[in-house]
Amino acid sequence: MAKDTFIKRSVLIVAILIIGMILGIAISSLKRGPQAIKEKIASSPLIKGLATGNLESAIMEVSNSVGPAVVSISTEHTQKIKVSPFPFRKEGSPFHDEFFEKFFKDFFRSFPEEIERKRTGLGSGVVIDKRGYILTNEHVISGADKIEVTFPDGRKFEGTVKGSDARSDLAVIKVDANNLPVAKLGDSDRVKTGQWVVAIGNPFGYLVDSAEPTVTAGVISALHRSLPSHKSGYLDLIQTDAAINPGNSGGPLCDLEGNIIGINVAIFSTSGGYQGIGFAIPIDLAKIIIDDLKSGRKIAYGWMGVIIQDVTEDLANYFGLSDAEGVLVSEVVKGSPADNSGIMAGDIIVKMDGIEIKSTKDLIVTISRIPVDKKIKVDVIRDKAKTAVSIKIGQMPTEEELAMMQGRLVEPKTDVAVERWRGMEVYPITDEIARRFNIKDREGVFLVDIEHGSPAYHAALRQGDVIKAIDSKKIRDLGDYKKVTKALQGDVLVYTDRGFTIIKGDR
Fold first, then answer.
1. What is the pLDDT of residues 105-151, one digit of tens each?
2. How many helices (H) and strands (E) does the chain have?
């Protein structure tokens, strides 16, 4: 009897809670007005789709609502390539003869030293402003001389880059059009693993001659994924099993309400085709910089000025931590915000601006979302005790500025064209270079880059060397360098401010 009474009371309590929830929703809805409720329901792709009783219809509704705002982006880039018609110039060639050299020079007198090669690319984009602003990936439009945007209805427009950011791999381009269909930006911080998503783009439009976007569906496989990249901060990506093929980059990843939750960016594949894993940049990261991209402003990222590493089990034991979480500060850049705030090498950062920091990735992602000049509290463990430090976030310096702060060598910036020979790049010794690297004798050329594995690399030449002579010929400036290296063959003696070395020739 007691058991039956308990069950009846439990059912009654659950019923009361459900009724309360319904009343709460009803009251909230009445405040907004019945017409607003009807419009909300009518505009929801998910409600429309689920009203028919199946997921298929929900996906179709997302396609119908977002598809008109998805565009195909084709790019063209002209690349200049140096060529030579003289096969005898290479040592060991059967034509390596002075007679043939003169004959070929006379015969090919008008042969161009450079030829132009046009490279084309394809990607996707999505309209985020009816005035013609389109969000896409930076790598889709990077280096493009010409951008053509094709809408699903077949209209074509010339696109202009308004702003781009390699770190986030996002860009905004604009077309001269108005009253365009616009896709809604969602909230990527609320998405969950296992949630259904729809990827929209036009990956093979150049093959099938169609501007209609393609649609694939799947679920969110994982969140906060990272990918290696030489320039982009792929540290907080959405992973999905919705097929993202080549050309889909820049297209939207949507939830079943038709809101953009990510911008498709990459596939992880050994063949270049789809193999079940795709990634997208969370739209909340894009929201932070969209206005700056539309206005053409440089994106300013937050910076503390610390060199950091993850806490291992051994380090956790040494510092008396209960678990291997947090970020160990191994170095503080002199004059940086961290240095000015009193953060020290050996501190373990466990929280920033109220957000728990468990790894270096957490810290990098968190600081990238904090506005420059904002003052935040940083919780650190120092001498096995927790303490709080107040820090004003600075702006991420350029590579050159950071190198100067740390005393490192970086490639100097100059308007003079770079010269490459046998795997090394040199610049003339400008006033800036002489001042920065304390070069007293201005004669020679400054070596700024060495290709790994090249003849110059194997000759033990390194960045910062000043080349004084080549093949016993004095190098006073870049003009001498060009003249001397133009006709050299075989092994060559090179004299630098560090001494003599031999650069091997082609074999």
1. 555 555 555 666 667 788 999 999 999 999 999 999 988 889 999 99
2. 15, 29
Catalytic residue from among 72, 139, 168, 379: 139
Percentage above 90 pLDDT, the chain? 38
Q: Which of 164, 188, 221, 249 is catalytic?
A: 249
Q: Is 139 an annotated catalytic residue?
A: yes
Condensed to tens digits (0 to 9), the pLDDT of residues 74-103 reads 998 876 655 555 554 544 455 455 555 555
Q: How many CB atoms lie within 10 A of CB 134?
A: 27
Cα dihedral 494→497→500→506 (10° resolution): -30
Is 417 in contact with 479 (CB distance < 8 Å)?
no
156-171 pLDDT per residue, tens: 999 999 999 988 999 9
Would you state the torsion angle of the CA atoms of residues 448, 433, 302, 360, taken in this order, to the nearest 10 degrees? 40
Complete DSSP assignment for 41-72: HHH-HHHHHHHTTSHHHHHHHHHHHHGGGEEE
- Among 446, 456, 427, 434, which residue's Cα sits nearest to residue 497? 446
According to DSSP, residue 276 is labeled S
Range with lowest mean pLDDT among 62-66, 278-282, 458-462: 458-462
Give the pairing of strands 473-474 and 146-150.
unpaired
* More confident: 68 or 85: 68
Between 419 and 496, residue with greater pLDDT: 496
Residue 341 is among the residues annotated as catalytic for this protein: no
User: CA triplet 163, 272, 171: central angle to 5 degrees?
Assistant: 5
For the stretch 4-30, what's the b/e string if a residue is b when 16 or more beta carbons lie within 10 angstroms of its beta carbon? eeeeeeeeeeeeeeeeeeeeeeeeeee
Amino acid at the residue 117: R
Is residue 275 a contact partner of residue 261, using CB atoms and an 8 Å limit? no
Residue in 224, 75, 217, 59 with CA at minimum distance from that of residue 137: 75
Q: Which residue of the set 165, 169, 236, 255 is catalytic?
A: 169
Q: Which of 138, 331, 309 is nearest to 229 (CA)?
A: 138
Residue 456 sits at the vertex; the CA angle it makes with 451 and 460, to the nearest 5 degrees, is 105
**Kind and range of the H or E element at 486?**
helix 478-486
431 as an active site residue: the answer is no
CB distance 124 to 202 below 8 Å: yes
Q: Is 193 exposed, middle or buried (0-12, 13-18, 19+ CB in 10 A)?
A: exposed
Q: What is the DSSP string of 433-453?
A: HHHHTT-----SEEEEEE-TT
Rg over CA atoms, the chain: 30
Contacts of 487 (CB under 8 A, 6+ apart): none
pTM for this prediction: 0.66
